[in-house]
## 1
Amino acid sequence: MKCRIGVIGAGSISEFHLDAYKAHPDVEIAAICDVNEGRARERAEKYGASRVYTDYRELLAQPDIDGVSVCTWNNTHAEISIAALEAGKHVLVEKPLCKTMEEALRVQEAVRRSGKVLQVGVVRRYGANTELLKRFIDHGEFGEIYYAKASWLRRLGNPGGWFADIERSGGGPLIDLGVHLIDICWYLMGKPKVKSVSGNTYRKLGNRANVKHLEYYKAADYDPSFNTVEDLANALIRFENGASLMVDVSFTLHGEQQGVQVSLYGERGGIVLEPELKIITEKYDTILELAPQMDHPAFDFNQGFASEIAWFVAAMAGEKETLSPVGDGVELMKMLTGIYESARQGKEIRF
Ligand SMILES: NC(=O)c1ccc[n+]([C@@H]2O[C@H](COP(=O)([O-])OP(=O)(O)OC[C@H]3O[C@@H](n4cnc5c(N)ncnc54)[C@H](O)[C@@H]3O)[C@@H](O)[C@H]2O)c1
C-alpha cells in the first residue's frame, strides 16, 4: 500500500520535495497546506493532491496521512513538527531543525514520546558524492580526519522576505547556509563531540537589492525592504577529539562570486567534497589527486532530494533508520546558536 504524504509550506523548496514524492512509486501526495491559499492550490493541481489547507492543524487532523514534509519558515518548524508527531505523523523537517536550543530539545522530546520518525532535511548527507565518500571514510582510507574547512561566500544572495527577518529565520547565512556546511563536515568527521565554538557575525552591507544585472535565489514572498540578519559569519569549532572545523558564509560580500567549497583533511589522505568530489593521497612518494568516476561528482539538488525522500519513506516503513535523526539536529542547533552567542559576547563559548 502507498503511504500518504502531506506537504506543509508550498514555497520554493517544496517543489524539490514534491518532485521526489511524485516520482516515488510507494507515495501518494495527499494534501498541501500553505497560509497562502493560492500557492497551496497551484502546487496541489500540479502534483495531483486532492486536499488543500491553509491551517496545518486541519491537515494533521486527517487520519489517513502517514507523514509530512515541513517546508515552512524556520520559526514554525518546531511548533509544526511537534504537532505533527503528536498527531501520529512521521516528519521530514527542512533545515534548520528550528531556531533555538530550547525548541530543539522540545522537538527531541516529542520524537521520543511519539515513537515516530523525524528526519532533519540536511540534504547534502544524501548526495551521491557524500554517500560514496562515506564508504571510503568508513573503510579508514583517510585515517583520522582532524581538520575541515568549508566556505559558501555569496557575493550577492540575500533571499529577502522571511530569510532576512531574524524573528522568522533565526539568523542569516550562518543558520541558512552554514547549517549545511557544518553538518556535512561534522557528519563526515564522525560526529565528534563539540567542545567549543568561536564566531563572528557582521552586518555591514545590507541586502543590496539595488544591484542590477544579477539573478539570485529569492523567498516566495521576496521583500527587499526589511533586513535584520547578518551578511557574513565565520566560526572555528573545536571538538573533544582535538579535531577542528573552520567555516565562513555570506549572503553578500565585496568579493568574487564563489560556490560552495568543502575540504576535509585526514592523516592518510584529503578530500575535496565541493565543488566536486576529489580524493588527495600519496603513493610511492607521489601525491595523487583521484577523481571518482560517477554521475554526480558535484552535489546535485534533484538527486539529493530524491535520495533524502526515498530514505524518509523507507524509515517510515520501518525498513531502515533515518540518516539524519533528531539528535543530530539538536547538536547542530547547539553549534549554530553557540556561534551566534559567541559573536554576541565577543568570546569563545565552551560546552
Ligand atoms: N535543503 C535546502 O537546501 C533548502 C533550500 C532552501 C530552503 N530550505 C528550507 O526550506 C524552508 C522553506 O524555505 P523556502 O525557500 O521554500 O521559503 P519560501 O518563502 O519560498 O516558502 C515558505 C512557504 O511557507 C509558507 N508558510 C509559512 N508559515 C506557514 C505556516 N505556519 N503554515 C503553512 N505555510 C506556511 C509560506 O507562505 C511560504 O509559501 C526553510 O526552512 C529553509 O531553510 C532548504
Note: The two ends are 46 Å apart (CA to CA).
## 2
Amino acid sequence: MANRILVCVAWPYANYLLHVGQAAGAYLPADIFARYQRLAGNEVVMVSGSDCHGTPITVTADKEGVSPRDIVDRYHPKILEVWDRFGISFDLYTTTLTENHYQTVQDIFLRLLERGLLYTSTQDQLFDPQAGRFLPDRYVEGTCPICGYADARGDQCDNCGSQLDAVDLINPRSRMSGATPELRQSEHFFLKLTALENDLKEWVGKQAHWRRNVLNFTLGMLDEGLKDRAITRDISWGVPVPVEGYDDKRIYVWFDAVIGYLSATKEWAQRSGDPEAWKPFWQDPDARSYYFIGKDNIPFHTVIWPAQLMGYGGLNLPYDVPANQYVNYSAGQKQSKSKGTGTWMLDLLDVYDADVIRFYLTWIMPETSDSEFREDDLIRTNNDVLIATWGNLANRVISMIHRNFDGRVPEVAGRSPESLALLEETRQAFDAVGAEFNTCHFRSGLQAALKLAQSANRYLDDRAPWKAVKEDREHAAETLNTALTVINNLKTLLHPVVPFSTARLHEDLGQQGRVLEQGWRFQEVAAGTQLPAPRPLYTKLEVEAPAGGQ
Ligand SMILES: [Zn+2]
C-alpha cells in the first residue's frame, strides 16, 4: 500500500546564489529521498521555496538602492535554474510572496492569538533618531561584547561566532545613517513558547528515530527552558500583522518562513487541480513529513515549527528532521577550472555534469560529521569510483554484447551457481539499499549499491567472457546476460543518486518508458532485446587541468 510522504526542504533566502554546502546539506539528500520514495511506489510531495522576507533581503536591497522585490526577482529564477540543472525534483518550488502564503501565515497567527498563545508586550529596541525608525538587529553594528571585535553585526559577531542581541553591542551605530541608536520601547506580539514547553518535551522524548545530534541538541534546548519570543518587528517588508493598529509592523521572518511548508503544500494542491489534496499529507496521522535542513536550522524545525503546529492543532508534526552537518570548502586548496568560485552551484554545473557532482556530494555527504569539498577529490572520485566501479561496468558489458552478439541480449540455456548467486545478491540489494535510503542514510545507501557493482565486476573478471566467447559461446552468453541484468537493476538502485545518466542508460538498455515506471524492484532484460550503440555514461577528468564536464 502506498504511503504518503511529504518532503520539506529548507527555504533559502532569495538574495544570493546557492553554494555547494547547501546542495549537499539539504537539497540533494531531499531529492534522493523523494526519488527513492516515488520509485518505491509511495505518494510523494516535495516542496520548498525562496524565502523573500527578512533583513538579509532588505540589507541587500538597501545596499544596491533597489527594492526587496527586485532582489527576489533577480535571484529566484537563478535558484530555479539550479534545481533544473542539478535535477532537484520539486513538486513545487514557490516563494513566500504569494497571496496564499500570506493568508496561511495570518490564519495561523489569528488561531494562536485566539488560543491565548500570542500576547503583546513592549520591548526595548534600538531606534535611529536620524532615520526616524526602529532598527532590526542586522541594521546595527558595534563592538562585540564578548570578544571586542569592532565590526560585529547586531545579530552575530563574525569574529567569535557568538549570537548577539543588538542592544548589547558596545558603541552601537546605525548602518542606515551612522547615527548612534537610542533605546525606545516598542510593542510586539510574542509567541508563548513557555506554555508549550511540556507538550514539546513529551513529543520530542518519543522521537527515538531522530539522528542523535538532532535529538540531543533539541533535548538540550528544552532542558535549558524556552523563552517566549517576539514574532513581529518594526519593519515594512514582510507579512502584515492581521490585527488593527499594527500597520507599521510585520510578522518576523522566522515565524513566517516555516509556515511555507504548509502554504506550499496548499499551493501545490491548488495547482494540481484538487485544492483539498494537501489535507491527507497534513491531517492523516499515517502520513509522514521529513524536513531536510542544515544543522544551523535545527531549533526552528524541532521546537519552533512544532510549537506553532501544536498551537494551531490538527496538523501533523514533523516525523523526521534529518539535519546534516556542514560541507567545508578550504580556500587554500589548489585552484582548478572554476577558479575559486567552485562553491557556487551554477559555476560548478558549468564545469561538471550534474550527476558527477551529485555522486561526489553523496559520497562525502555530511550525515554524521562535517566533510570537505575539494575539486581534486571530486575528480578522483569521478575517475576512481563512479567510472571505475560503475560506468565502465555498464559500458564494457554493452560493448561486448555489441561486439559478439550483434547488440542483442543473448539467450541463456541455464545458469551456473555463481550466476544465480549474483542475481540473488541483486534481488537483495533492493532491500539493503532501500532500507538505507528510507532511513535517510544516503552515503551508506550508495555504498551498498556500489558493493553490488563490485560483485558484478569480480564476476566478470572471474568468468572473462571476452576470452570465453572464443571457445564456449554459451558460457559467454550466460555471463553477459547475467551481468546485463545486474546492470539494469543497478540502474534503478543508483537512479535516486545519478538520475540523468541512469535515464540515458535506461534507453541504452533498450527499455521503454521512464526508470520511475520500473519501480523499486528486480527486473530482467528480455533476451533478444536490441541494444542501441554503446556510449560512455561518464567522462574521465584530468586532475591538473579539468577537461570539462562535456
Ligand atoms: Zn565577538
Note: Residues 332-341, 546-550 have pLDDT under 50 and may be disordered.
## 3
Amino acid sequence: MQVIATAGHVDHGKSTLVRALTGMEPDRWAEERRRGLTIDLGFAWLTLPSGDQVAFVDVPGHERFVPNMLAGVGPVPAVLLTVAADGGWMPQSAEHLAALDALGIRHGVLAVTRCDLADPGPARREALARISATSLGQVEAVAVSAVTGEGVPELLDALGRLAASLPVADPAAPVRLWVDRSFSIKGSGTVVTGTLPAGTVRRGQELLVTPAMEVVRVRGIESLKEPADQVSGVARVALNLRGADRGTLSRGMALVTAGQWTLTSEVDVRLPDYPAGERPRPPRALTVHIGSARSTARVRMLGGPIARLALHDALPLHIGDRVLLRDPGDAGGGLPAQARPAQDRTAQARTARSAWPALVGATVLDVTPLPLSRRGAAASAAAELAAWPDPPAAADLLRRHGLLRAGALRAMGIADHPAPVTGDWLADPVHWAALRRRLAEAVTSHAQHQPLAPGLPLEAARAALGVPDRRIVEALAGPPLAILDGSIRPAATAAARALPEKVLAAVRALRQDLAAQPFLAPDATRLRDLGLDPRALAAAERAGLLLRLSEQIVLAPGADAQAARLLAGLPAPFSAAQAREVLRTTRRVAIPLLQYLDRTGVTERLTDDRRRLSGR
Ligand SMILES: Nc1nc2c(ncn2[C@@H]2O[C@H](COP(=O)(O)OP(=O)(O)O)[C@@H](O)[C@H]2O)c(=O)[nH]1
Ligand SMILES: [Mg+2]
C-alpha cells in the first residue's frame, strides 16, 4: 500500500478529485458536506490497475486549518498536489508547497484540476516551476476534470508510476504511529487511526502511548476497513486498543515500540543555511510539527544553522527526524514571504534581513543535548554540530557524549555502533583514554594522601570520574591498574598483595642481599634455601618486585637502569669482561644482564662481540 496526501489551495478541487478517483467521500463531517469545505482530514482509497492500493489523506486547504493539513501530511511519504486551471497559483498553494519542502517530501504528482473551466497550461507552468525549486523536484503533471472525467485515467497511470517509484519502507523498523483520529466503538473500546510510515504492527503486540508512555495492547487491526493480523508500513491502519482509557488518546500522540524512541522535550536541530550575518532572528516561540503532533517551542540559536528547541510537550524522536517550525504569530497567516499580498511584501522588504520564514524545516541532530552551562558552550556545540554529517553516526554522538549505552543510542535511532567497552556501554576512544588517565591520577593521588589505605575504593573512583556506572570504572582499571577487594591500586601493588606471605618474606630477604651488591644475583642454592622456585619468582616478577633476566637469575627492579649508568662510564665499545668488572659481578650474571640490555634496546651488540650503549 502507498499513502498519498493531497495538498493545494482551498476550493482547488482536492476533495472532488479524491472522490472521483476512489468513489469514496473524503469529507467525513456533516458540517464539511454542508459547507462544501474540508475542515479536517479525510480518508479514501482505491486499487490501481497494477493491484497496488493507494490510500489518500485529504487535507483542508483553508489557511485556518493549516495545523490539520500538517497533521495529515506529516507522516506521509508522497503527495497529490492540486492547482485549479481557473484559479492558478494561490497563497495556500504556496504555503502547502513550503510545508512539503520543509518536511523534505520528495515524491508527488501535480493535478491541474477544473480543466473544463480554463486552459490548464498557465497554472501547470507556474506550479511546475515552483515545485521544481523544492524537495519534490521534477514531478509529473496531469490536467483533470472531475466533471467531464477528462484526465482521470492519465492521473491513475501517473499515480501508479508514483506508487511504484516510492522507496520501500522497512518492515522491521521501529513503530511510530502518529494518531490522527481516535474514537470509541461501543463494545470494542478505543480505536486510533494513523499513517504507519514503516515497521510492523501485530495483533497482541504491546505499544507505548506518548507522552505518558502508558502500555496499550493491540486488540485488533484494520487496514482500509479490512481486518488484519499484522500490517507493515507504509499503510493506513486502525488499531483497536486494550489498556487505553476512553478519551485519553488524541491526535498528536504516538504509539511507539518500547525502547526504540527517545521521548524528549529538548533537541538540537540544523536549520537551513544562510550566508554569514544574514540569518534572520527566530521569534521567541515557534510551533513545532512532526507527524500529527505539534508543540510550542522556545528557540535558542546556538550559532550558524544550529538551534536548540525547548519543546512544551515531549515528543518521541529520532536523530535525523525532519521537523517543521511554523511561526504561529506570522502576520501572513503562515505564508512564505513571496506568497503575501503586495502591500504586505513592502513591509517585508523593509525588514527583509530580520524576516524569519513562516515555515521552515529542521533536521534533528541530538535528542539528548547536554546542558550549555559553561561560557562559550553554545558556540562550541554549534561548531561541533554544524560539522556533523547527515545523518550523524554513532561515532559523532559518542564524540559529543563521551559515554552512551547501546540501548540509548538505539532509542536515538542509531543502530550501528562500535563494540562496547563493558556491558552495553559505548565510549568515545579519546574520552576513554582521558578517563583512564584521570583514574590513574586519582589512584596515585589517593595513595599519596592515604598511604595506608588499600587503594581507591571503586565507588569513590566512580564519583571522582563522574561516570554513571561502576562497571565502567572496572573496565578502566586495567593494567597498569588493578582491582583487589573492591579497591583500585597500581597493578604491581595489587599483585604484590596477592603473593603468599612466605614468598613476600623470601623476596624481602633477597632484596636485602641485593641492596649491598646489586648485580650479584643469588645462586641456585640461595634461591632454594629461600623456597623461591621458578613459579614464585614469576609471581614476584609480575608483582614488580623482581627483575628476572632468565629463569633463575633475578635482580632488584631498576638494576637494568643502574647497570646502564655504570656502563656509560666505560669507553665504547666495551667487552663483556669490562662490563662484568664495572658491574662487580660474575660472568653468570653479566652475560644474561647484557643480553637483557640488548633486548630492551639499552645496549647494542657489535660483530666483534663488544657492545656500546644504543644511540652513542
Ligand atoms: N467544473 C468543475 N468543478 C470542480 C472540479 N473539481 C472540483 N470542482 C468544484 O470546485 C469546488 C471545490 O472543490 P473541492 O473538492 O471542495 O475543493 P477543495 O477545497 O480543494 O477540496 C466544488 O464546488 C467542486 O464541485 C472540476 O474538475 N470541474
Ligand atoms: Mg477539500
Note: The two ends are 79 Å apart (CA to CA).
## 4
Amino acid sequence: MSENPETVLAPGAKAERSPDAGARAAGPTASHSGYGPGEAPRWREYSKCIHCGLCLNACPTYRELGVEMDSPRGRIYQMIQVDRGKLALGESFVRHMDLCLDCRACETACPSGVEYGRLIEAARGQIQEHYRRPAASRFLRRLFLREILPHRRRLELLGRLLRVYQRSGLEQAVAASGVLSLFPGNLDRVSKLSPRMEKPFFTKQLGTTIPAIGPRRFRVAFIAGCIANLAFAHLNEATVRVLARNGCEVVIPSNQGCCGALHVHAGLRDVARQLAVKNIRAFGGGGLDAIITNAAGCGAVLKEYPQLFEDVEREHYEAAQAFSARVKDVTEFLASIELNRSFGAIKTRITYQDPCHLGHAQRVRQAPRRLLSAVPEVELVELKEAEICCGSAGIYNVVHSELASRLLRSKMQCVDRTRADWIVTANPGCLLQLRAGVRASSLPGRRVLHVVELLDEAYAAFHAGASS
Ligand code: SF4
Ligand code: SF4
C-alpha cells in the first residue's frame, strides 16, 4: 500500500522561515518554508509537476518498493510539503530522498518537463546543511567526500595502499576470515565492490599532450576523473588512443581534479563548487574543440556546472557556461565527427546498457549504438529495459546495497535473455556494477567493457591484420 505523504508530517513541526525563501520559491506558499538558508527545491521547478504519475513506472525505486513516497511524484510532493512548512526536514523526508538513485529516468518519462535532477540535488543540499545525520555517517561522508576525494595526492596514497592490499594476498585472507562483516558501515560490501587499483595509475599522464595519429583534425582536452585515474587507467588510455586515431591531439591538463559529481549527488554543493572552479580554470585555455569525458556521471555534472552558480557565487556563472558548452561525452564526440572506420572485425554478440547519466541526463542514446554498429561483425542486440538503472548510481550500491542488488539481479536477467557474450556500457561506475553482476551470475566468462574499449580493440585488430 502506498504511504500517504500527509501521514508523515511531523505533528507540530515548526519550520523556521528561510531568509531567502521568498527569492527562492516566488510561489504562493513561500512564507512558511521548512527549508533553511541556501539553495533549495524551487517553486518555479516543482510547480511544473502536474502529478500525472506517468513517471511512476519508469522509477526503479517505485518499481521495486511500490511506495508512492519512493516515486518521483511522491518525492516532489514531499519537497513541496517541506517548502510549505507542512513536513519537517527530518528523518522520514531524508530517508525517502536518500533512497532516490538520482538516475533521472523520471525526467525522460515526464511530459511536463520537470527537471527532477535539480530538485533532488537541491533537496540533498538542504539535508546536508540543515539535518544532522548519525555520527558515523557524518564521519564517513566527511572523510571520503571532503578529506580524500578532492585531494589528488591523498587519493593516490589511498590507491597505493589499496593496491598493496589487493595484490599481496591480504585481501583474499581477510575475505576468507569473514572479519569485515563484524565492522559497521557495510565494510564487507565496500570491499567486494572496490575497484581494482591498476599499475601504473593514469596520473602519470597528467600534464602531457598526446599527438594525433595522422593529420591533426581536432584539439581536445581529456578529463581523466579522480577514481578513474587509479582504477580505470586502461580505459583512460584506450580513450586517448581512440581519440588520437581519430585525428585528435589530446591535451591532459595536470591541474584538473575530481569533477564533483559525487558531491552534487550527496548534497555537498560547496565542495562541488570549489572543484568546478578548479576545473574551469584548468581547462580554460583557448583553442580546444571539446573537453572529453568517458564517464557519463561526470559528464552530466560537468555539463550542468552552471546550475551550481545560478544563485551562489554568481561571478563564476558565465565561465561555467562557457566550460560546459564544450563538454562532450566521448561517444557523443566520436559520433559527431567523420569517424575513422579502420576497424578490424570483432565477431561477437553484444548488448548495450544505457548509463542513466548518459541517456536520461545528457540525452545521448544513439551515439554509442552508432559507434558499436560501425564495427564489422559485431552483432548488437537491444537490451530490454536498457534505460533502467543497474543499481550503481555513484556509491548507491554501497550505501543501499540491498536495493542495488535487487536492481542488478533484474538487470542480469534481462542480459541473460539477450544471450550476449559482452555487455557494453559507457560509465566506469556501471562497469563495476555489471562486473559484480557477471561474477554473481551463471555465466562468469562474460565480458563487460566500455564502448571505447571495444573501438580500441577493433582498431588494434585492423592494425594487427594489416601488419601480418
Ligand atoms: S511525470 Fe512529471 S508531471 Fe507527471 S507526476 Fe511525474 S514528475 Fe510530475
Ligand atoms: S531519479 Fe530515478 S530513483 Fe529518483 S525518483 Fe527519478 S526515477 Fe526514481
Note: Confidence is low (pLDDT under 50) at residues 1-26.
